[in-house]
Amino acid sequence: MKESQGGGLHGRSDLIDPFGRAITYIRVSVTDRCDFRCVYCMAEDMTFLPRRELLSLEELDRLCSAFIEMGTRKIRITGGEPLVRRDIMGLFRSLSQHLEAGTLHEMTLTTNGSQLARFADELASCGVRRINVSLDTLDPGRFKAITRRGDLDRVLSGIDAAQRAGLSVKINVVALKGVNEDEFESMVRWAHARSMGITFIEVMPLGEIETARVDQHLPLTKVRARLARHFSLLETDYRTGGPARYVRVGESAGLIGFITPLTHNFCEACNRVRVTCTGRLYMCLGHEVAADLRTPLRASEGNDLLNAAVRDAITRKPKGHDFVIDRTERKPAVPRHMSVTGG
Ligand SMILES: C[S@@+](CC[C@H](N)C(=O)[O-])C[C@H]1O[C@@H](n2cnc3c(N)ncnc32)[C@H](O)[C@@H]1O
Ligand code: SF4
Asked: Tens of pLDDT along 121-137?
């Protein structure tokens, strides 16, 4: 599927930013909690938010529905791990009404896969068609080391269940220097043999964690050059309005995506905003520009205040991001964890 710049996923939106970009895609984090503690994402000993800070499922439903009314056509549910939030299927079920009505075109999910075996059928019955599963290695020991507490077999069974349920699965791999770089070729073969796309993500400087980012950072130019020794990588004009660039592998016809926020600017076609699990609207993953939507949500039952806050916020969407790994301070450029903003 190809999206046009500014016009967003499928044309019209009420939400047009100062640079003419139509905001048609929201990513919503439904929890900051997770059953894993991936080394690049979370500290071993995380303190999670008190529950009262989180939007309730009803508030999340209201918020998403308001965005849909203002022109959002695609919603990605993320986290933390979205499938560990209690009764999360209620939100999917409720939002599926917008899919049936045709006002929402796509509802997707980013997940670590640990709960997929349980929820795959229900997700499919709620109208979810495509999901992203994050998986950085196919080696059980490494998987345990990266996620600190995950079980690879469980995730693989989850992927099986998702494919059996008819969901199209894309694998997201964070490229980690000295950790999983020797597996990229085999992971591409594995994914494509199962008709799954695969996307490599560069580590982003978000959130304070123990390991210094510069030690993990592996430029995707190197990943791509290495893959090019094993596969013919054909340029495509396939775009999703986001930071990924895709190539097609001649031998398998499968896609490989590269998300390189640190080395490339991808902002000119940006059609998305993010909402955290506490109802903060972030206009850009790499900026602190944000708006509080929880207060207007809780201030009244009607949506006038909420809609006004969203419209006002969109006028402040920055032109582009500003990621830097500070090599002297070793501090993240943006102090938020990805698990708070949602990936
Ligand atoms: C924050 S997770 C949330 C959804 C779900 N728990 C998962 O892992 O897919 C979303 C994505 O962000 C990625 N991610 C987390 N921290 C990152 C970082 N510092 N740099 C790059 N990607 C990161 C994860 O690998 C995952 O693909
Ligand atoms: S990347 Fe996803 S699975 Fe890993 S700790 Fe972060 S939220 Fe959890």
From this structure: 999 999 999 999 999 99
By the 8 A CB rule, do 105 and 10 touch? Answer: yes
User: Considering only CA atoms, which of 238, 316, 242 is closest in space to residue 1?
Assistant: 238
What distance in Å separates the CA atoms of residue 307 and residue 14, rounded to the nearest whole number?
Answer: 11
Q: What global pTM score does this model have?
A: 0.90
Determine the pLDDT at residue 37: 96
Strands 168-175 and 197-202: parallel
Please answer whether residues 192 and 232 qualify as being in contact, where contact means their C-beta atoms are separated by less than 8 angstroms. no
In this structure, the residues whose C-beta lies within 6 A of any atom of ligand 1 are: 34, 40-41, 78-79, 81, 110-112, 134, 172, 174, 201, 203-204, 206, 338-339, 343
Average pLDDT (213-218) is: 73
Contact yes or no for 45/285 (Cβ under 8 A): no
Q: Which of 325, 326, 322 is nearest to 203 (CA)?
A: 325
The half-sphere exposure of 177 on its side-chain side, counting CA atoms within 13 A, is: 14
